[in-house]
Structure formats: structure tokens, C-alpha cells
From TrEMBL:
Residues 23-441 form the Amidase domain. The keyword Electron transport does not apply. GO terms for molecular function: asparaginyl-tRNA synthase (glutamine-hydrolyzing) activity; glutaminyl-tRNA synthase (glutamine-hydrolyzing) activity. The keyword Ligase applies. Keywords: Ligase. The lineage of its organism: Bacteria, Bacillati, Actinomycetota, Actinomycetes, Streptosporangiales. This is Aspartyl-tRNA(Asn)/glutamyl-tRNA(Gln) amidotransferase subunit A.
Length: 459
């Protein structure tokens, strides 16, 4: 099926004139028209302008002027604004709002020849690990419609899994790229802080990261190389730009720490099975994988996150909850009212305590391997309330294992599929690197992808 080509394969076929950009885009649009009524991943379709771009891409391939993403359909997370298009963030409060600026990530995708054919759904204000809102409705997991694709980049994850885009963008403040990647059986990268430029004020929030999503590690690397690099609007954007090299997947001799629980997370059996399979796959590829213990607790992680969110993200939407509570979803209102026993400064102290054992661990190991989430997926219409996780009722965010690496914001993290759970939903693992060591993370992920049996794609 053309819609499930990798971006790398599609670009090669178009370069050899064996595939037309118009033909590819038509296949992706046809697939979207088939599955979107069930999946609901898109907030906006840009098919007419996309088709015009596809025709121009045909000329570029004929003329030998094709760019890295020439002719590739890319779905963009609605949170990332495009000048002149709606920027509603899943909220009735912002219904009809028109963006006055384009996000640097989108600008770079278009400049590289990428075709933005659709924009993808998020929860309200991108503040949940599932994707539904009063404005856009429920986005469902293509593998099993009873489950969520995750959040907040859930529309992007669902689109990739459903075959309605070849590449997609996400953003990650507590796992919002990696959670949908795991739930949807795709690949997602949380770059280290500053690697990919963002817009103020959240570019200054070290928990926040914009990044690439795709169905293969190579495609994620392709998109990462397009969107990374310094930008004049973002004071924390890093220079010089890191250009990921061609991946070999050669991980012989690399030392990898394995943690199944990151301290005391309650991890469900299907996730454990997938994580152990990933560890064995790396061993088979020549890496040295050893199980380790981390002294973290879920309570400690959530306390640090609450202090951070109360001081920054929650505070940013707090006034909206106070003035327009009746228009917000329950989960957005609850998030806006996040309270912490710790002040912002005390939260920073705790973040330092949390990072120290990870930093010490990564002096001895080249990377850490762990589950992305403790559960295979959340129910599609979960409202943010308590959820049973491996038999224990607690806050639903205890079902994800991503937040420690927003705290450790300079660590690059890739989520890669590890298998399928009994309910038909994928599971995933995180490859966590030393600070700013993106290349090792990508090489390990490439080795994992090559060694693990593929999970295919949903019908």
C-alpha cells in the first residue's frame, strides 16, 4: 500500500521517477477518507494546497532540484501554528482563532519540500496523555478503536499508524511525543532541550520539546535533520546544528542499562514482555545489556512535575480556568488548577536530586532502555480521573514513564515499538541517551528496529 511507504522509500522512488508525488498524495488522501470517520486524527485538511505542492514536486524531481522532503506528505500538530490558519488548541475558548505566525518547525518542513496536507488533533491545550476535546471530539487508536492513541500528539500518532501521513510533528512536555508513539506503534523522538527551535514562551520551558514522529527510525532521523538547528527567534536553540549521520545500527560493544520499573512504577505484563524482547534484541545485535536499579519513586517524580507545571504550564492557562471554567474540559480545568506542596525553587532542587542517579548511571552505560508506558494504552474517552494500573488505582499519569526524561531535559529519548499487547495495541520502549548524545540513541534504536520482528500496521 503506497500510504504505508516510508518517507525514505517514497523519496527514493520519486527520485527514480518510479512514483509520482501526486500519486503518493492521492493514495494518502484516499486512505484518510477511508479511515478518518473512525479515527478522527485530523483537525483540518489542506488537500487543495497540498495537491498544488505535489504537482510542483513533480517538476522538482524532473529537474533534479528535489529537496530532502520533496513530495512527502507531512501531518502537523495543530498546536504548532501556521500563519493564516486556525490555531484553536482544542479549546472552545479559541474556536476560530487565526495564527499570525508560523512555527519554525513548519517553516523548515515546507522549505525542505514537505507537503503539509493535514493538521492533527490534540487534547485541549495539549495538557493530557489522551486525545479528545469538546471542540474536536474523540481521536481513537487505529489498532483498537476502544483505546486512545495517547496524547498530546495523539492525532499525529494515529495518523501515522492509520497510513494517513508519512511523517508527522509532535511536541513533548511530559511524554506527548513518546506516549502516542508507544500506543500507536510508531517512532517518536524527544530531542534534548534546545535542539529543535520553538516559540516563546514555552521555548524557555526546559520540559518542552518539539520533535519528529514517523513509522521508522530512519524517517525520524530524516525529519529531525530538517527541523533541528539554531533559529533567530529562539535564544535557547543550539548552535552549531547537529546533523545526524547515516545510521548503521552497529551497536557492538555499547553498554546499555535496562530498567523495567524506573524505581517503583507498576508495569503491566505485556509491557514487560516487550521490554525484555527489546533488551534481548540489543544483546543479539552485540550490545551489552545489564539490568539496573534506579532509586526513583513515582511520588517523587510526580511531586517534581507538579511543582513545575503549577509554576509554568498550569499557570499559563490558570486565568482561563478562572474566567471561563464552563467552557473547558474537566481535565484542562483540573490541570490549570494544579497545586504543589513545593515552590518552584524547591521543585528545581528535587529535579536535581532526580537527575543525579541517572547522570551517574550514564557515566557507566552508553544509554538506558526502559518502557515508554506502564500500560499498553488508555481508554479512548478516559477523562483524566483515576485509573487501575496493574491492579492499583491511581492517577492515570502513573501509567506513563516519560516524565523523568522531561525532568532530565537534556537527554535525547527515542520511543520505538517493542511488540503488541493482548488487546491488539502496541507497546514501546524508550532509548535514553547521555545529555546531547543523539547519535548513540539513534544507532541503538536502528538496531532495535532491525532486530525486533515488525508489528505491521492496523487494518
Amino acid at each position: 500500500m503506497l500510504a504505508y511507504l516510508s518517507a525514505t522509500e517514497a523519496h527514493a522512488l520519486m527520485s527514480r521517477r518510479e512514483l509520482s508525488p501526486v500519486e503518493l498524495l492521492t493514495a494518502v488522501i484516499d486512505r484518510a477518507e477511508e479511515v478518518e470517520p473512525r479515527i478522527n486524527a485530523f483537525t483540518e485538511r489542506l488537500y487543495d494546497s497540498a495537491m498544488e505542492q505535489a504537482r510542483r514536486a513533480e517538476s522538482a524531481f524532473r529537474n533534479g532540484t528535489a529537496r530532502p522532503l520533496e513530495g512527502i506528505p507531512v501531518a502537523v500538530k495543530e498546536e504548532q501554528p501556521i500563519e493564516g490558519r486556525t490555531h484553536e488548541e482544542g479549546s472552545l475558548l479559541f474556536k476560530g482563532t487565526i495564527a499570525t505566525v508560523t512555527h519554525p518547525v513548519v517553516t523548515r518542513i515546507v522549505a525542505a519540500g514537505g507537503i503539509v496536507h493535514a493538521r492533527t488533533a490534540t487534547p485541549e491545550f495539549s495538557c493530557a496523555a489522551f486525545t479528545h476535546s469538546r471542540l474536536w471530539g474523540v481521536t481513537r487508536n487505529p489498532w483498537n478503536l476502544d483505546y486512545s492513541p495517547g496524547g498530546s500528539s495523539g492525532g499525529s500518532g494515529a495518523s501515522l499508524a492509520a497510513g494517513t501521513s508519512l511523517l508527522a510533528t509532535g511536541s513533548d512536555i511530559g511524554g506527548s511525543i513518546r506516549i502516542p508513539a508507544s500506543f500507536c506503534g510508531v517512532v517518536g523522538f524527544k530531542p534534548p532541550f534546545g535542539r529543535v527551535p520553538a516559540l516563546p514562551p514555552f521555548n524557555l520551558d526546559q520540559y518542552c520539546h518539539d520533535g519528529p514522529m514517523a513509522r521508522t527510525v530512519g524517517d525520524v532521523a530524516l525529519l529531525q535533520n530538517v527541523i533541528a538547528g539554531p533559529h533567530p527567534w529562539d535564544v535557547v536553540s543550539l548552535r552549531p546544528k547537529l546533523e545526524l549521520p547515516r545510521l548503521t545500527g552497529d551497536v557492538r560493544g555499547l553498554r546499555v542499562a535496562l530498567s523495567l520499573t524506573l524505581g517503583d512504577y507498576l508495569v503491566e505484563p505485556d509491557v514487560v514482555t516487550g521490554t525484555l524482547a527489546a533488551a534481548q534484541a540489543l544483546r543479539a545485535a552485540g550490545a551489552i545489556v545489564e539490568e539496573v536499579e534506579l532509586p526513583w519513586t513515582r511520588k517523587q517524580i510526580m511531586a517534581a512535575a507538579d511543582a513545575h507545571f503549577a509554576g509554568i504550564f498550569g499557570a499559563g492557562i490558570g486565568h482561563l480556568a478562572a474566567e471561563h471554567a464552563d467552557l473547558l474540559t474537566d481535565y484542562a480545568r483540573e490541570f490549570a488548577m494544579t497545586r504543589s506542596e513545593l515552590g518552584f525553587y524547591q521543585g528545581l532542587e528535587l529535579e536535581g536530586e532526580i537527575y543525579r542517579p541517572l547522570g551517574e548511571l550514564l557515566e557507566d552505560y552508553d544509554a538506558l532502555l526502559c518502557p515508554t508506558t506502564a500500560v499498553p494504552a488508555f481508554p479512548a474517552e478516559h477523562d483524566g480521573g483515576p485509573l487501575a494500573i496493574n491492579g492499583e488505582l491511581g492517577h492515570y499519569m502513573l501509567g506513563v514513564m516519560t516524565i523523568p526524561f522531561n525532568i532530565a531535559s537534556r537527554c535525547p529519548v527515542l520511543s520505538v515499538p517493542s511488540g503488541l499487547a493482548a488487546n491488539g495495541v502496541p507497546t514501546g520502549v524508550q532509548v535514553v541517551g547521555r545529555t546531547y548524545d543523539d547519535v548513540t540513541v539513534f544507532e541503538l534504536a536502528a538496531a532495535l528496529e532491525a532486530a525486533l520482528p515488525g508489528i505491521g500496521h492496523p487494518a
